[in-house]
Amino acid sequence: MMSTNSTAEFVDITEQARKVVKVAEIDEGILYLFNPHTTAGLTINEGCDPAVRHDLLGLFQLLISTSYPCCHAEGNSPAHALATLTGSSVTVIITKGELQLGTWQHIFFCEYDGPRNRKVFWKVLAG
To answer: Where do the coiled-coil regions begin and end (predicted)?
Structure first.
């Protein structure tokens, strides 16, 4: 369980992912992450410069208009559309017990309808 703090934000969950892999004690395999929420997503992107997260959120919000007259009664249709852009899962290869992320890559939980309490499901598969 995690709590988000803003209406829209990218939460870096890379260290939690590394801990999950370490606890699993496998040398080779994959880590599969799944987000069961329809107004949030998961993505892998640049994690060293926080400005990239800021820019991505801004660009996404330019793509998805909040002024469109949506039919969904809850009023959060833009959050559903944003979640579609990032998707609900990511998979990362594990080699020698380590996540195989690029130099600048981090794993992010993408909140689009917060703040809320959220879940991410983790599955480590050896192989």
So the answer is: none
Which of 30, 6, 3 lies closest to 120 in space, CA to CA?
A: 3
The count of other CB atoms within 10 Å of the CB of residue 57 is 19
Residues 6+ apart with CB under 8 A from 41: 35, 82, 83, 84, 85, 86, 87, 88, 109, 110, 112
What distance in Å separates the CA atoms of residue 116 and residue 120, rounded to the nearest whole number? 13
What confidence tens digit (pLDDT) does each residue in 73-91 have?
Answer: 787 899 999 999 999 999 9
Q: Which domains does the chain have, with CATH numbers?
A: 2-126 (2.60.120.460)
Q: What is the pTM of this model?
A: 0.94
Residue 121 tokens read as 């499901």
